[in-house]
Amino acid sequence: MSESDIPAHNLTVLAETFRLLGEPNRLRILFCCLQRPKSVGEIVDELELSQTLVSHHLRLLRGARLVKGQRKAKQVFYDIDDRHVSDMLIDMATHIDEEHHDH
């Protein structure tokens, strides 16, 4: 796929998505949710971030379709939205890890 195959609107959305991923805590939240769906409380405990901050980041990540929430009883559990997102995260982490080992 070349740039000419991607509509201008999609490039704008892609740029905005990468801008969202430029915040380290958002990446931490995404990686936290890779293994299994997590509640806000679990994310707060695991990452040692405030509930307000985690909720704010989850709202933005949900808006970008990077995570999805599923209500179970009184809690919402957040998971990576689809395999494209999880594959991208794993591939980029592997890429960075390989860079450090090759230099």
From TrEMBL:
<dbReference type="Pfam" id="PF01022">
    <property type="entry name" value="HTH_5"/>
</dbReference>
<feature type="domain" description="HTH arsR-type">
    <location>
        <begin position="6"/>
        <end position="100"/>
    </location>
</feature>
<dbReference type="InterPro" id="IPR011991">
    <property type="entry name" value="ArsR-like_HTH"/>
</dbReference>
<dbReference type="GO" id="GO:0003700">
    <property type="term" value="F:DNA-binding transcription factor activity"/>
</dbReference>
<keyword id="KW-0238">DNA-binding</keyword>
<dbReference type="InterPro" id="IPR036388">
    <property type="entry name" value="WH-like_DNA-bd_sf"/>
</dbReference>
<protein>
    <submittedName>
        <fullName>ArsR family transcriptional regulator</fullName>
    </submittedName>
</protein>
<keyword id="KW-0804">Transcription</keyword>
<dbReference type="InterPro" id="IPR051011">
    <property type="entry name" value="Metal_resp_trans_reg"/>
</dbReference>
<dbReference type="GO" id="GO:0003677">
    <property type="term" value="F:DNA binding"/>
</dbReference>
<dbReference type="InterPro" id="IPR036390">
    <property type="entry name" value="WH_DNA-bd_sf"/>
</dbReference>
<keyword id="KW-0805">Transcription regulation</keyword>
<dbReference type="InterPro" id="IPR001845">
    <property type="entry name" value="HTH_ArsR_DNA-bd_dom"/>
</dbReference>
